[in-house]
Amino acid sequence: MQSASKLIYRGKLLGSLPTVGEIHKEIAVSEETVTWISLQRDIIANILLGKDPRLLVIVGPCSIHDVQAAVDYAKRLFVLQNKYLSKMYIVMRTYFEKPRTRKGWKGIMHDPDLNGSYDVEKGIRYARQCLSSITTMRVATATEFLDPFLTPYIADLICWGAIGARTTESQTHRQLASGLHCPVGFKTVLMEILT
Cβ(94)–Cβ(128) under 8 Å? Predict the structure, then answer.
């Protein structure tokens, strides 16, 4: 297996990650789903541009820590989205990373077992499988893009993206956003709030 990168944490080699292509091949989605995701991105863009009068509603858990619970939530959301489709467009919040300025759990992509083992490869698979299941059932997805290295593993399955307050002014994250195929929102800049 060709490695994309070595994972080093506190000077200790944790292992290597498979390439983005390998993960995409392993956890693939149908062409139908790819086309559907593209359509959802267009719908969201049209709402944001005022071409579609519906309200854009992004709802869901603060972060995903249990893939099965997330899929169950998506099943319930699917019923609601169809019920209110004429008035609002509902997108499921599928956040797999948590921004941290101090210690704390960084999200399922970084630490899927919630125990400090940092099995990033397992976390990538969890996140991609979760998104594959949710988009296959036709629920649109939203996430905050934090780690530019992990973004390519899941970006093709995201309908709306966010750049968070801690990274809004980061050149790396602005460049990341410009390369994404989904509409991207930028949260309020922290310094504007503090001054």
Answer: no
CB of 126 within 8 A of CB of 67?
A: yes
- Domain total of the chain: 1
pLDDT surpassing 50 at residue 3: no
**Residue 6 falls inside a structural domain:** no
CA angle 157, 161, 163 (to 5 degrees): 140
Instruction: Calculate mean pLDDT across residues 144-158.
Output: 93
Instruction: Say how far apart CA 9 and CA 53 lie, in whole Å.
Output: 47
Q: Is 93 exposed, middle or buried (0-12, 13-18, 19+ CB in 10 A)?
A: buried
User: Would you put residue 178 in left (φ > 0), alpha (ψ -120 to 50) or beta?
Assistant: alpha
CATH number at residue 71: 3.20.20.70
pLDDT tens digits, residue range 84-130?
A: 999 999 999 999 988 765 677 788 898 899 888 889 999 999 999 99
In a 10 Å sphere around its CB, with 0-12 CB exposed, 13-18 middle and 19+ buried, how is residue 66 labelled? middle
**Predicted TM-score of the model (pTM):** 0.86
Note the helical H segments in the chain: 20-26, 31-48, 67-83, 120-136, 151-154, 171-178, 190-194
Model pLDDT, residue 2: 45
